[in-house]
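Practice problem. Given the sequence and the SMILES for adenosine-5'-triphosphate, write out the predicted structure.
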Amino acid sequence: MSNPTETDAAQERTAAPPTPPRPAEWWRSARRQWAAAAVLAAAACYAPFQLVPFHVFQLTMVLVYAVALLGLNLLVGHAGQISLGHGAFFAVGAYTAAILFDRWALPYPLTLPVAAGAAFLLGLAFGVPAMRLRGLYLALVTLAIAIFLVPLLKRFEELTGGSMGLTLAKPAPPAWSGLAEDQWLYFLTLVVAVAAFLLCVGLLRSRVGRALHAIRDNEGAAEVMGVRLSVHKTLAFAWSAMFAGTAGCLYTWVIGFVSPDSFTVNLSITLLAGLVVGGLGSLSGPVLGGLFVMFVPGIAQDINDAAPGVIFGLLIIAVMYVAPTGLAGLAGRLLRKIPRKE
Amino acid sequence: MTHLVVKDLTAGYGDARVLHGVGLTVGEGEICAILGPNGAGKTTLLRALSGMIRARGTVTLGGADLTGHPPDTLARQGVAHVPEGRGTFMPLTVEENLRLGAYVRRRGPELEADLDRIHGYFPVLKTRLKQAAGSLSGGEQQMLAIGRALMSRPRLLLLDEPSLGLAPLVTRELFRIVQAINAEERTTVVVVEQNAHLALGIAQQAHVLETGRIVLSGTAEEIRADEQVAQSYLGYRV
Ligand SMILES: Nc1ncnc2c1ncn2[C@@H]1O[C@H](COP(=O)(O)OP(=O)(O)OP(=O)(O)O)[C@@H](O)[C@H]1O
Ligand SMILES: [Mg+2]
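Answer key:
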């Protein structure tokens, strides 16, 4: 969580008078970040031993969605593109894992790289239109991917199990671990999520990240600075799809069941909404967005069983009204209100 | 010794042709000013030179053919373009903007030296490194844009109306720095400028562009002495 509110901070800086950075301040903030990370890590390892299995499962699913949102954030928040079809890449990861498991009895750890790779390649293929299209046009094409997918999955019944889907055994906890199944799945997911998070941070800090930000902020200027637009726009799609595919694979591990109706257009739209509500372009946004994707549809259902969609929509509007830069931005603002000891 | 050679350059947007056979040469390490009324195609000329738009004709820099290459290739060939409106990456910090300038050079120990070099020309940037570039004043953003272009160690620097929106004092300071950069680094400069006084003050030669054609070329003194130019761009009669 090195910088939870990049965009928010940028706005803040716009208003604030220039303050040259002080090394002491930087050191203090870096120390605070490490402390926060350590507390978070401890809590993440402690939680599954305190919660009932169903809550452990819910927490696991939050992490699964967070991984998908990490990818979507890369594309939307950092590369400035849009995708209304990320549920499709998620589904490709999920189905790749399920089919490998089901047909070839591949050991489950091996399904992860294959699922990620398949989604990466598909992302690369769909990144080509992204090179030429932008804004609403790109949104429409990506939406078409999501719409296209469900009938396609139903069509290839021998492989995908058609509308019935595929039911699989979940990865069993090894005896040495002494963990229950839900705890084992949680830690598997946690390890993958942390690795995905670090990979994403590394990517953003590298030359690639700089190129993506430049394209997002000023395409023409990026181009004359030597950034290859076509390469980076396509790769942003592919990277992003890879994270979504990884999340899809985790989904298969955790749920043990895939069916076309789990991956409708609704999923894609919920993912995008979750990211925007969580905080676009921030590091904590995907985690907050994961919470949103996991819990808010259920809450909406609880409030009004007849029209969950209406409540869901109203909740999004309410959050965006209170926190226009997403929950990450709101959290950053609240944290800054807490007086600090000197 | 001629460095940049442009011959019979035509370019435009879609079906609309804006440049109709522009030709000019600039000597190595020289400053060349492009004057002309609004809509003459000055910005279009620079865009064609940096590859932002497709152009026909021939462009060579130090003997190497640059015609028809995409902008990222030209950036690697040493062409740096400070676009109209500065092209600042607003949400990024000043330092990130500057580092992006060196994007084509990959990393290296010289990068830090280059940052120091830029701070030498523009001391104000050094005090703003961690600030969002969008929060700089217009003049500071222009300095940042030029500093960023220098980070690529260009052989050819294209400046599009650096004075746009700046106070006269800041503009003069900026031109003094451009002159210093040109003198110290022997960078060839093509500058498009409305403020003909200042541009002719630092340029060795100048061209007047009207409706996509060069209608007058000469040394800075010759152009300054031209009656037509004096009336149109300098605001007085000779
Ligand atoms: N992106 C564009 N798409 C279509 N036409 C354009 C575009 N940019 C410029 N033009 C047209 O090209 C012509 C030349 O424009 P250009 O920007 O090169 O003029 P200029 O000499 O730089 O003018 P100014 O001094 O106002 O900046 C104008 O007629 C303009 O309408
Ligand atoms: Mg112009």
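Check your answer against the key. The first helix of chain B runs from residue 42 to 49.
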